Amino acid sequence: VTEDNFQRILPQIYCDSAKIKKININFAGPKVLEVHPYITNRMLRRIINHRELKGGWSTIGEMIEDDIFSEEEAKRIAPYLHFGTKAE
């Protein structure tokens, strides 16, 4: 996109931050998780399988320890996750 084109479309670009919600990683279903651009199929399988065995996580650090995410992956995805204790 050229600078001129960007300036022309800029008034049409917006983000409603009220519609942005974090994913409750302990309760989100596969359909919610699979549409997130940072969650790969490998991560999705590990999240679902491990969550059934363990029951969930309290921190992103626990997910790194459980080999769900690498440290780099965790840094990228952590802002989008919530570690809730009940389904919302």
Please count the helical segments. 5
* Uncertain spans: none
Alpha carbon gyration radius: 16 Å
Overall pLDDT score: 92
Largest sheet at a glance?
Answer: 2 strands, parallel
Helix-strand category: mainly alpha
Strand content: under 5%
Give a summary of the structure in a few sentences.
The protein is mainly alpha-helical and 88 residues long.
Key traits:
mainly alpha, 88 residues, 5 helices, two-stranded parallel sheet, single chain, 2 strands, elongated, 44% helix, 5% strand
Structural overview:
44% of the residues lie in helices and 5% in strands. The longest helix is centred in the middle third of the chain and has 14 residues, at 41-54. It has a two-stranded parallel sheet with strand order 1-2. The protein has helices spanning 3-9, 30-34, 41-54, 60-65, 71-77; strands spanning 23-24, 81-82. The termini are far apart. By secondary structure, it is mainly α.
Please outline the helices and strands.
Elements: H1 3-9, E1 23-24, H2 30-34, H3 41-54, H4 60-65, H5 71-77, E2 81-82
Parallel strand pairs: 1-2
